[in-house]
Each structure stands twice: as structure tokens, then as C-alpha cells.
């Protein structure tokens, strides 16, 4: 669920957790969307599904800064891929740096019916998992399906996992419906009296 600082919220599935992470705030004009203000905010985001990484050690200010650096790198790389531009070298370097840390280690429950993350669970491990997912996305079979929303002034990016590869909107509930409404109004304005 994404929240607009002007009010309202809408359902948005980016198709990859790393892209969901990229939409937690940002720099410049996107600072109004910031959700990671302090280390506890990062811990809270990482603990939510689908990552479910309940940290066993507190997030440090340094880890929060590293998270924001990774988030910006993912944002820049995703937009470059969506626009079919070369990936920014600094973004690639930041993603690769984050991926070098040990990732989260899955652990099967005693009953064998559920999985959790093996302790200790640290922020750097979760960030490594996000970076590795972004590497897989950019170098894998879905790399040509990273898209930017076709809505006016909507910068959200997502992985188009639809069978025909025709997804255009971040959300039909938001940008898709806005587009349909504008098209309807335009048809009515130019239609017969």
C-alpha cells in the first residue's frame, strides 16, 4: 500500500520486493514520500511481508544510510532499464556493494511446515537480499519487463509479469482509472452535440 502525502492511498504491487523498497521515499522531489526517517522505520519495513525479516539486532544509523543509498541505486537502475538506457555506473556499484554482505539465511521450522530467517537477522543481510534480487531482476529473464507507469507524472516502476507483457499502469485503481476518465472526457468533449 502506498500513501500519497496529499492524502489517500492505493494498492501497488511492483512485482519485486527490491522495487517495493525503492518506493519507500527518495531524494529531491521524492523526499515528501520518505518513510525511512529513523533506524526503527527501516526495521519495521523489513519486518513486513513479503520479506518478513524481523531483525534480531537494532538498525544503526550507518545501516539506515546504507539502505537509503541502496534504495536510490535501485531506483536509478530500474528507471534506466525501463527507459532502455545504460545503467548508471554509480548505481551498479552501490547495488554490487550491498550484495557483497552475507544474505539472509532461510531456516526450516522444527515441524517442517514453515520457514523463517536464521538468527541473527541483521539489516545488512536484508539489504544484501534486496540487492541480490535487483541483480537477478536486471540480469535475468524479466529484465526487459521493468516498466515505468504510463500515467501522467507517475514515476513508479514495476515488473510487468502479465502474460502478454502489456501492463502499463502502476495500478489500475490509480493511474489506469485516471487515464480512462481523461479519455472518456476527451471523447465527450469532441463527440456530437
From TrEMBL:
Coiled coil (residue ranges): none
Superkingdom of origin: Bacteria
Gene3D superfamilies: Jann2411-like domain (1.10.3300.10)
Residue stretches making up the Zinc finger CGNR domain: 145-188
Protein name from the UniProt record: Zf-CGNR multi-domain protein
Amino acid at each position: 500500500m502506498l500513501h500519497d502525502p496529499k492524502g489517500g492511498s492505493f494498492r501497488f504491487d511492483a512485482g519485486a520486493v527490491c522495487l517495493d523498497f525503492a518506493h519507500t521515499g527518495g531524494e529531491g522531489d521524492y523526499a515528501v514520500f520518505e518513510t525511512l526517517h529513523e533506524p526503527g522505520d527501516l526495521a519495521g519495513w523489513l519486518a513486513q511481508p513479503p520479506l518478513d525479516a524481523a531483525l534480531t539486532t537494532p538498525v544503526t544509523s550507518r545501516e539506515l544510510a546504507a539502505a537509503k543509498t541502496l534504495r536510490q541505486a535501485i531506483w536509478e537502475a530500474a528507471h534506466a532499464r525501463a527507459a532502455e538506457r545504460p545503467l548508471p555506473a554509480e548505481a551498479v556499484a552501490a547495488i554490487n556493494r550491498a550484495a557483497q554482505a552475507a544474505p539472509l539465511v532461510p531456516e526450516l521450522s522444527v515441524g517442517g511446515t514453515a520457514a523463517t530467517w536464521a538468527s541473527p537477522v541483521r539489516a545488512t543481510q536484508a539489504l544484501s537480499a534486496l540487492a541480490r534480487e535487483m541483480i537477478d531482476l536486471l540480469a535475468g529473464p524479466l529484465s526487459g519487463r521493468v516498466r515505468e507507469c504510463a500515467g501522467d507524472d507517475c514515476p513508479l516502476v514495476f515488473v510487468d509479469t502479465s502474460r502478454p507483457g502489456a501492463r502499463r499502469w502502476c495500478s489500475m485503481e490509480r493511474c489506469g482509472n485516471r487515464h480512462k476518465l481523461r479519455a472518456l472526457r476527451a471523447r465527450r468533449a469532441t463527440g456530437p452535440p
